[in-house]
Amino acid sequence: MNDFDWAAMADLLEREGEAHGPYVEQALEQLRHLTPRRILDIGSGPGVAACRLAAAFPLAEVTAVDGAAELLARAAERAERLGVRLRTEAAEFPEGLAGLEPADLVWTGQVVHHVGDQQDALDRLAGLLEPGGVLAVVEGGLPARWLPRDIGFGRPGLQDRLAAATAERFSRMRAELPGSVAVVEDWAGMLRTAGLTEVRSKTFLVDHPAPLAPDVRQSVRQMLQRQRTVLGELDADDLATIDRLLDPADPAGIDRRPDVFLLTAKTVHFGRRPAG
Ligand SMILES: C[S@@+](CC[C@H](N)C(=O)[O-])C[C@H]1O[C@@H](n2cnc3c(N)ncnc32)[C@H](O)[C@@H]1O
After folding, report:
1. Per its UniProt entry, which superkingdom is the organism in (predicted)?
2. Which atom of ligand 1 is nearest to the CA of 6?
């Protein structure tokens, strides 16, 4: 695994997964016609999508797979709390994928970009499918937005600069991954290269208008807090603006201002393993 401390991000991942729930629900609508017996959620994290899969396909055996034992423990707790059946299995990607039982539906959300050789990862994921099985890969979409362009202090356009710094950090992260391979990130083309057919990409909106419910607002706070910690590119003025936004006592801060929203879009790439 790379240098992300995934276990320490458990809260953020779980809350973000909940805030982004609307896209998973819409994507699952696209899969309602399936009757999978076995489902894998590869890189499940704390199991938010895995539990939705388990609820949508109650007759299926759903397994959350991840490299972080702490996150799998959270996924199991979450499943118990929600009353859905979920198995967990620890595996490191990509090597550990070989040890998994094949499945009729393989879901993987925002994980492939954390593996050095993304085409190889997709080949291995496609290799986990039973004949006729479906792979759903969440990659791409649009960066989240949550602030107006002008927030009344600091230089307008903070959100764009956060997005630019995040994109820079992302490129650095990819270049530093073990076995990193540069590839044209044509996800549909990569699924076809992995031998899948009926490939299509569909983008789903996550739209939480202001005023935000407290849990979604908390997710925005955690995102901004993380960006404050990991983004080295921001200048002193922007850092001061972010510190003011993160001040719980400030009426113009993220916790109290009325105009915070959450808008993002997630693209899911679907492909099917030929039946015969
Ligand atoms: C960005 S999170 C995505 C969590 C969830 N799928 C979602 O969409 O919110 C990436 C997940 O992949 C797992 N992961 C990343 N790289 C991994 C690797 N090389 N081996 C095993 N797990 C890995 C992390 O532990 C984390 O739970």
Report:
1. Bacteria
2. 25
